[in-house]
Amino acid sequence: MRMYDIIKDKRDGKRLSDEQIDFAVKGFTCGDIPDYQMSAFAMAVWFRGMDAKETARLTHAMCNSGDTVDLSLFGDKTVDKHSTGGVGDKTSVILLPIVAACGGICAKMSGRGLGHTGGTIDKLESFPGYQTELSTERFLDQVSDIGLALVGQSGNLTPADKKLYALRDVTATVDSTALIASSIMSKKLAAGAHSIVLDVKMGSGAFVKTVDEARELAKTMVDIGKSLGRQVCAVITDMDTPLGYSVGNALEIKEAIEVLHGGGPLDLRNVCTELACRMLELSLKIDEKEALKKVRGAIESGAAFDKLCQWIERQGSDAKYAKDPSCLPAAKNIIEVISDRSGYICRMDAESIGICASMLGAGRTVKDAPIDHAAGIVMNAKTGDFVNSGDVVAYLHTNTEDYAQVSKKYLQSLKFSSKPPKALPLIIDIIK
Ligand code: URA
After folding, report:
1. Which residue has its alpha carbon closest to ligand 1 atom 7?
2. Mean pLDDT over residues 354-359, rounded?
3. What is the mean pLDDT of residues 320-341?
4. What is the CA angle 209-215-218, rounded to 5?
5. How many Å is the maximal CA-CA distance in the chain?
6. Is 404 exposed, middle or buried (CB count within 10 Å of its CB: 0-12, 13-18, 19+)?
């Protein structure tokens, strides 16, 4: 078999066989197939697409290109959650303790921030001492004892995806449904959970910008999971506006703690309730009504917050940071962003707001650079709110003195109108 023929077949719109896909993934992972051929392959897939069977095979081949996690010890109760990435998305920090407090099992791996989007591992490292690497034995012991653990992605998980993603990033081949779906699902399948809830974000702060694209991506991922023996549910949620009011690591942790105490912003609470119910339905095989009762009970009784405390203590931090969030990293400067216009905020460019937070120190401009956990933005007005000229629309939290540009960029990310904008649903669709 030759990689040349595989590229040519896909270029000409032919269906690839399982053997051809396995050959390409294996050869690329071990270095026999060079980057230039794999880039040409990715571009052919970008133009021609893949059908459901090809996409599932690509996922399977990438999943098995490296280590996989064995969670069979926990039967079919393990449930994972994946967000396709957004701004202000701190849902994992809230969902895992809720689900574990209700009897579900979450053994999860997460990533760091990518581009304008934040990463759960960076957020959790706002808890001083939080360890993102655990031995397999410690990881499984923790899950057995308290029902949850969350670590960074292990070194040799889906190496084929790691290499292919890096190529796609520089060859304009990221935005292909087959490639995105197989990339995400290969990592989720390798991480071992029996059930997976996907939060497919849609809008200005997300990877996919339209409902149709989001539905196609969600359906493709659900079908892949099913064809490979997992239970999958996808919830399409709005990411046209950042989620909650805070963007930036420690600031988002503080907001997550508010939700676990029963408060916090309504949009964040609603998305978390929806996702937690879906996770419990799959993990505990209960219906929606019972799941909702359990989620509410776990928050009202304090069991979910207690679970957060146990979790961060087991992973090397101290529960005092959750009990008194004023101990979390805090920036020395808090700068008001003042509106120079009056009107209803009719649109927020969530991607631009994510970039503003990153410029304040909350994200990275180069790979592996340190980040400032205290930095970020607390919004004071969001889409639909009326603002007068002179009102504070946001607070910038930063340890740098270089915030004038950010303030300007933040204001440019807001669009105003004289009439209130039409409210869009937060939960756009659910695909089972
Ligand atoms: N996230 C991933 O892990 N892979 C993609 O291709 C896109 C988003």
Report:
1. 180
2. 94
3. 97
4. 105
5. 68
6. exposed
CA distance 415 to 431: 32
Q: Does the CB atom of residue 183 touch ligand 1 within 6 A?
A: yes
Nearest to 87 by CA among 275, 356, 353: 353
Residue 396: beta bridge partners?
Answer: 335, 377
Dihedrals phi, psi of 343, to nearest 5 degrees: 145, 180
Q: Can you name the CATH fold of 330-417?
A: Aldehyde Oxidoreductase; domain 3 (3.90.1170)
Which amino acid, residue 394? Answer: A
From residue 130, give the alpha-carbon distance in Å to each of 34, 302, 313: 38, 22, 8
- What residue ranges do the domains of the chain occupy? 3-49, 72-161+178-323, 330-417
> Is the CB of residue 184 below 6 angstroms from any atom belonging to ligand 1?
yes
Please tell me the distance between residue 312's alpha carbon and the centre of ligand 1 in angstroms.
27
pTM for the model stands at 0.92
Q: Is 15 a catalytic residue?
A: no
Query: What residue's CA is closest to ligand 1, atom 2?
Result: 184
**Rounded CA gap, 431 and 291, in Å?**
18
Q: What would the CATH number be for the domain defined by 72-161+178-323?
A: 3.40.1030.10
Q: Is 180 in the pocket of ligand 1 (CB under 6 A)?
A: yes
Q: What is the pLDDT of residue 364?
A: 80
Could you give the percent of the chain with pLDDT greater than 70? 100
Reply yes or no on domain 3-49 having CATH 1.20.970.10: yes
> CB of 361 within 8 A of CB of 400?
yes
Question: What confidence category does residue 370 fall into, taking pLDDT thresholds of 50, 70 and 90?
Answer: confident
Ligand 1 atom index nearest CA of 180: 6
Question: What is the per-residue pLDDT for 367?
Answer: 66
- Tell me the pLDDT of the chain averaged across its residues: 95
Residue 128 CB-density burial (10 A; 0-12 exposed, 13-18 middle, 19+ buried)? middle
Going by C-beta distance under 8 Å and a sequence separation of 6 or more, which residues neighbour residue 220? 52, 55, 177, 178, 181
403: how many CB neighbours lie within 10 A of its CB?
18
- Matching fold, domains 3-49 and 72-161+178-323: no
Tell me, in angstroms, the distance from the centre of ligand 1 to residue 169's CA: 10
> Taking 80 as the threshold, does the pLDDT of residue 155 lie above it?
no
